[in-house]
Amino acid sequence: MIRLLVADDETLIRDALVSLLELEDDVEVVTVAASGQEAVTAARHHQPDVAMLDLQMPGLDGIDAAVEILREQPDCRCIIVTGHGRPGHLKKALAAGVRGFLPKTVAASTLARVIREVAAGGRHVDPQLAAEAMAAGDSPLTAREADVLELAADGAPVEEIALRAHLSPGTVRNYLSSAVAKLGTSNRHEAIQRAQRQGWL
């Protein structure tokens, strides 16, 4: 029997996933979670074989939650399911040790098959997402440029970004200018949009 953790912040989706997966003879949902942090805590208490995590959740996202779970339980297999399968997310997930990455648009039978594959030690990446990740290439941004660009995403002024990033305003301006140039855009708003589309933020 595969012991499964299901984490999704949307109650309807989480309940639907649990109902569908409990129809499988060899899958037992041992715990559920509504956030990344809840998933880490639930995994600690219930020791699932597989943790199925939504990519975008409050606090810790699915990838960060997977990192925490795997740090404490290296034998747990993590799967990311997402409605926002951007290339950068896939690369980040694989680098974090995630064994499965697939969109929420897959059939329930496919999801159950992937859970079995991953539980048995295999890997599964949605072919379309894999092709898009290969086509997108790696992010041209340094980690610091990406951090500053992400802090600018809500429209915060340079001074506020500087405060939050523990940098001087001049350094923030330099990072933003460098990011704009590397992404081939005309301003930071376009740079943010392009980086988000590619999953680099």
Summary?
This protein folds into 2 domains: 2-136, Response regulator (Rossmann fold, 3-Layer(aba) Sandwich), CATH 3.40.50; 143-198, Winged helix-like DNA-binding domain superfamily/Winged helix DNA-binding domain (Arc Repressor Mutant, subunit A, Orthogonal Bundle), CATH 1.10.10.10. It is 53% helix and 15% strand.
What does this structure look like?
β4, α4 and β5 form a beta-alpha-beta unit. The protein has two domains: 2-136, 3-Layer(aba) Sandwich (Rossmann fold); 143-198, Orthogonal Bundle (Arc Repressor Mutant, subunit A), CATH 1.10.10.10. The protein contains ten helices and six strands, in the order βαβαβαβαβαβααααα. α4 (87-95) crosses α6 (127-136) and α7 packs across α9 (169-183). The chain is of the alpha/beta class and 201 residues long. The mean pLDDT is 91.
